[in-house]
């Protein structure tokens, strides 16, 4: 009773009591709202993951390494034959359809050597499916060229936009040192290169060259040969180390002796600056700017200098898997990843 009359006698104390009560009520209301909000407390991580999936990158351009097996032994290879697994054709098609539904516009088939499995017929069926059934604007392949026959062009060439052949030197002895060869007594890598160039012209497939610059070819002047072959693009890569692939204790390759400095790479670029089709890719540009699918259709995250796989898009879908790809879309655009990649738009003089 005394406390009540004291408060009545002291307006200041009464005001303080009202403010304190108001604070208490407000805090209780906010506490209830917070508990009822999706993602609060234990659900917070789940909500963040859901938002991450909702805002996932669109897989505009994807590189599918459907096989790791290869008939060459390039010393710097950073996608080595750690398994011999290849998805069944229909499962591979299902994954490609999921990618198309998620926004894929360009697919690039690689390996390993993609023409090695089923003598190129598996690859040809995927190429035909992507162009004919999925109606993708661009379908491309990267190959060493050793297994390609003219019959393949006759059967599947119309469905292929770009064929890139890897060639690191125009000196056969240098190719031997690098390992870009099937061994002595076999066909010349350069003969294959020029033969395939003529087939691309004949069967209306855009021709491209990929070169990895390393200690064995960094001083070579390739200008004359590149100009003669006249590819739509000449991709020039700096030799890259990937732990578990071409570096480290469990790697199948030891590429340290192939590595060049940033300055050496820039000097090579400067020496070939007159070549208009040259597209340079340093280690910085290359490492995280590719969406790479392995043989199980898992995205590979290279941010930590190794290839950490996501779950397969066949199991969790594209949006869930791509969140773990480490993909740098800004660098993808900066390095010229988006270009005129459909042969219908290239206006080439066949």
Would you give an account of this structure?
The protein has helices spanning 2-9, 11-36, 44-54, 89-101, 121-133, 150-156, 172-178, 189-202, 223-229, 262-271, 283-286, 313-316, 318-322, 329-334, 343-346; strands at residues 61-65, 106-110, 138-143, 162-166, 206-213, 233-238, 278-281, 292-293, 298-301, 308-312. The model is unreliable at 1-9 and 26-42 (pLDDT under 50). The N and C termini lie far apart (104 Å). The radius of gyration is 28 Å and the shape is globular. The protein has 350 residues and is an alpha/beta fold.
User: Care to count the β-strands?
Assistant: 10
Strand content: 5-15%
Shape: globular
Please trace the helix and strand order, writing H or E for each element: HHHEHEHEHEHHEHEHEHEEEHHHH
Largest sheet: 8 strands, parallel
In helices, the fraction of residues equals 25-40%
Summarize the structure.
This protein has 350 residues and is α/β, with parallel strands linked by helices. It has helices spanning 2-9, 11-36, 44-54, 89-101, 121-133, 150-156, 172-178, 189-202, 223-229, 262-271, 283-286, 313-316, 318-322, 329-334, 343-346, and strands at residues 61-65, 106-110, 138-143, 162-166, 206-213, 233-238, 278-281, 292-293, 298-301, 308-312. Strands 7-6-5-4-3-2-1-8 form an eight-stranded parallel sheet.
